[in-house]
Design a protein that fits this description.
single chain; 263 residues; alpha+beta; 2 domains; 5-stranded mixed sheet; 21% strand; disordered N terminus
Length: 263
């Protein structure tokens, strides 16, 4: 039993790693031929009730800045469901440098991520495109992910699991009634193992939420261990039930005919 407990502890600490998740901007770099599109690479924009301004500089393969006299651009913006929220042409700024688009604040929602594609064509036959993503936050800054609460819950379940498994190995009786004592200890073992399955499931859930990137081997191992514990739980329930019936039958027999010492 002690070896089993040590294995579970080692598995728990090795199967879960916490890290700060990076924001994936999904930037699609344009090819180094044709039109090149440059833009301010903001990962987040503020949802302060003001419209958002997306700016782009378009230049050719010799880095000559292009204007709307020879170039036209379109923009498509998608929400997290992959649906269009914008299909429009870029306007040209009065500074004679920027292609721009004004994204109205009522088209975006705080906490959501968006992806956009920009396509530009020139009258000389050159073309270019750009793809990028951005998120919306209350202040335009990257959100801070605090995983301390999640880790705290994991630690609580881990402690409870190991404590219950350890309690089930006690030699001291929980009750003077032999059957009740046996059932209580087995319930502690069953509950401890069940808490461990919750612990592994929560680890996977938190890993997915914070994009920790557990490799497929670890996920597969955790999946196999989880279902193995379910199988063990089923076997323990059946064995415990049979054992309780056997003890109950023996007690009834002793009440009716007495023990061997009494006979």
């Amino acid at each position: 039993m002690k070896k089993t407990i040590y294995f579970l502890i080692l598995f728990c600490f090795c199967s879960f790693v916490y890290a700060q998740p990076p924001f994936n901007t999904d930037i699609v770099e344009p090819a180094q031929v044709g039109l090149q599109i440059s833009y301010p690479q903001f990962q987040y924009y503020s949802d302060g009730g003001n419209d958002l301004c997306l700016h782009f500089h378009v230049h050719n393969s010799t880095n000559w800045l292009m204007t709307n006299s020879t170039v036209s651009c379109i923009i498509h913006i998608y929400d997290y469901k992959g649906c269009h929220i914008v299909e429009d042409e870029l306007s040209f700024s009065t500074n004679d440098v920027d292609f721009e688009y004004q994204l109205y604040s009522n088209n975006v929602t705080e906490g959501e991520n968006y992806h956009y594609l920009v396509y530009c064509n020139s009258t000389t036959g050159e073309a270019g495109f750009l793809g990028a993503s951005f998120g919306i936050t209350s202040d335009g800054l990257a959100p801070e992910y605090d995983g301390s609460a999640s880790i705290g819950i994991l630690i609580i379940f881990m402690v409870m699991s190991f404590f219950l498994i350890y309690v089930s190995t006690f030699k001291n009786r929980f009750s003077v009634n032999e059957i009740l004592d046996y059932v209580l200890k087995k319930c502690c073992l069953l509950l401890g193992l069940y808490f461990f399955t919750i612990l592994t499931t929560m680890s996977l859930t938190i890993s997915d939420k914070y994009s920790l990137g557990l490799n497929k081997l670890i996920i597969t191992i955790m999946f196999i261990v989880n279902w193995s514990i379910y199988l063990i739980l089923l076997i323990l329930v059946l064995v415990t039930g049979l054992k309780v019936l056997n003890m109950w039958s023996k007690n009834k027999y002793n009440e009716r005919y007495g023990t061997d010492d009494e006979q």
